[in-house]
UniProtKB/TrEMBL annotation:
Full protein name: PLDc N-terminal domain-containing protein
Membrane disposition: Multi-pass membrane protein
Keywords carried by this UniProt record: Cell membrane, Membrane, Transmembrane, Transmembrane helix
Compartments in which it is found: Cell membrane
Predominant location: membrane
Domain of life: Bacteria
Alphabetized Pfam families for the sequence: PLDc_N (PF13396)
Membrane-crossing segments per the record: 12-31, 43-62
Domain Cardiolipin synthase N-terminal as annotated: residue spans: 25-62
Organism expressing this protein natively: Pontibacter aydingkolensis
Length: 75
């Protein structure tokens, strides 16, 4: 029986797909949970990440690197 090794192209695309799944899920959770985006921006980001499952979340993470809550004012 002959051992067949996968080509470099197959390994590349499997890596892209497997890294895209967590990016997609994390971006959707961040989009849905945040209060800093209004409803129309949320819908646009959800559709964008849905149709561009690897590039969309990367653009989202570059545009919004962190969603830290603003510090509470001292009283």
């Amino acid at each position: 029986m002959e051992l067949v090794t996968p080509g470099i192209g197959l390994i590349f695309w499997q890596t892209v797909i497997l890294s895209g799944i967590p990016l997609f899920l994390i971006s959707w959770i961040m989009i849905l949970v945040t209060n800093r985006l209004d409803a129309t921006h949320k819908i646009v980001w959800l559709i964008g990440t849905l149709f561009l499952p690897v590039i969309g979340p990367l653009i989202f993470f570059i545009k919004y690197p962190s969603f830290k809550k603003p510090a509470a004012p001292l009283t």
